[in-house]
Amino acid sequence: MECACGPAKQPPRHGWKWWLPLLLPAWAAVYLNLRWAADAVVFGLLRLPPATHLTETVRFFLFEVPKVLMLLVLIVFGVGIVRTFFSPERTRSILEGKSLFAGNVMAAGLGIVTPFCSCSAIPLFLGFVEAGIPLGVTFSFLVAAPMINEVAVVLLLGLFGWKTALLYVSTGLVIAIGAGWTIGRLRLERFVEPWVYDIKTRPAAGADGKIPFRDRVGAGTAAVREIVGKVWPYVVGGIAVGSAVHGYVPENFMAAIMGRSAWWSVPLSVLIGVPLYSNAAGIIPIVQALLEKGASLGTALAFMMSVIGLSLPETVILKKVLKMPLILIFIGVVASGIMIVGFLFNLVF
Predict the structure, then answer these.
(1) Which has the minimum average pLDDT: 164-168, 191-195, 273-277, 287-291?
(2) Phi, psi at 13, each rounded to 5°
(3) 14: which residues sit within 8 A by CB, 6+ positions away?
(4) Backbone dihedral region for residue 150 (phi beyond 0: left; psi -120 to 50: alpha; all else: beta)
(5) For 139-164, what is each residue's pLDDT tens digit?
(6) 3-class SS at 313?
(7) Computed from CA positions of residues 88, 90, 93, 95, in that sequence, does the dihedral angle turn out positive or negative?
(8) What backbone torsions phi and psi does residue 294 show, to the nearest 5 degrees?
(9) What is the value of pTM for the model shown?
(10) Which class for 240: exposed (0-12), middle (13-18), buried (19 or more C-beta within 10 A)?
(11) pLDDT (tens digit, 9 = 90+) per residue, 13-51?
């Protein structure tokens, strides 16, 4: 990203360093007092009676919205800095020449730290194929990048705690690695559009150039503006729906539909989630409310993974470079992995 100002208006070389260390303590002080602030508004300012459906709905909303947005700003800022170390060209060069399984593992890991959006699927795919990266390795990256993104991790961390966030990341990695390895073993290159293999791209100049830390901080700030600026309506909307579920939906109803006793709940949740289009910001607060009302962890995770990891727009984009049999196999393999995870966690937890 280029600076809008000219050479004569460069900021002081180290002028930003004095305020950067002060941000985290200030952030922590505000974050730790959000529950008190929400209660003060609900019971002090609005004077709502305790233990009513409306009170619990409003209280849930007023506490979760600033908490999630604050976590989002913090993590997106950090990820924005990390992204400056992993351009698409460097990601491609790292994956070149790797064996199938090692490449799947590395590609899935890179999908976390380089969470490109679905719109990047075509140029990344073209670059990977041109560089001779195996098809299965490419799919491991394409599964991990949208599914295990910073927004999903932040929301899971804030709403469910570090154990659930770690659980989601680890299972997402397993799905990405397993799906890519399976597709690679099936040798499905014949289902890639022929023109893709005729593309010859050249690496961008200066891809390995060093970036000053000041510019990396600027990239983190820009990431906050771009990402949080785009997803905050989904955060608010998702939490609003989740608040209504939290306050008004009976627990026994959700337990009957998405509880672990209903064996069909996992495949049904995946079947519903695959054609839906949402992002982590919109779906995770709803999942939180469903869990609180009796939905099982495995079923809720399966639903969330299918919505985030198998989006309709990405499928439409991939149709430009893949033939329909490969797209259907891709969806089937990933959906099967998600269902296995759902059944497993319903048995264990």
Answers:
(1) 273-277
(2) -60, -40
(3) 214
(4) alpha
(5) 888 788 777 766 677 777 776 778 87
(6) helix
(7) negative
(8) 115, 0
(9) 0.62
(10) middle
(11) 445 555 667 777 888 888 889 889 999 999 989 889 987
- CA dihedral over 238, 242, 243, 248, signed as positive or negative: positive
Structure tokens at 121: 């699927």
Q: Six-digit token pair at 11? A: 């900021």
Length of the chain: 349
Output DSSP code: residue 49: P
d(CA 176, CA 168): 12
Q: Which residues are CB-contacts of 337 (< 8 A; sequence separation ≥ 6)?
A: 174, 175, 178, 179
Tokens of 68: 């999630």
Paired tokens of 166: 């770690």
| Domain ranges within the chain, ordered by starting residue | 88-198+239-348
Q: Are 184 and 136 in contact (CB under 8 A)?
A: yes
Q: Round to whole Å and give the CA distance between 261 and 167.
A: 22
SS3 call for 322: strand
Nearest alpha carbon to residue 34 among 74, 63, 70, 71:
63
Apex CA 103: angle with CA 97 and CA 108, to 5°? Answer: 140
The Cβ of residue 340 has, within 10 Å, a number of other Cβ atoms equal to: 17
pLDDT recorded at residue 122:
56
Please identify which residue in the block is written with the tokens 């609180």.
292
Beta-carbon contacts of 7 under 8 Å, excluding residues fewer than 6 positions away, are none
Helix, strand, coil share of the chain (percent; to 5): 75, 0, 25
By CB atoms closer than 10 A (0-12, 13-18, 19+), residue 143 is buried
Eight-state DSSP code of residue 40: I
| Residue 281, H or E segment | helix 280-292
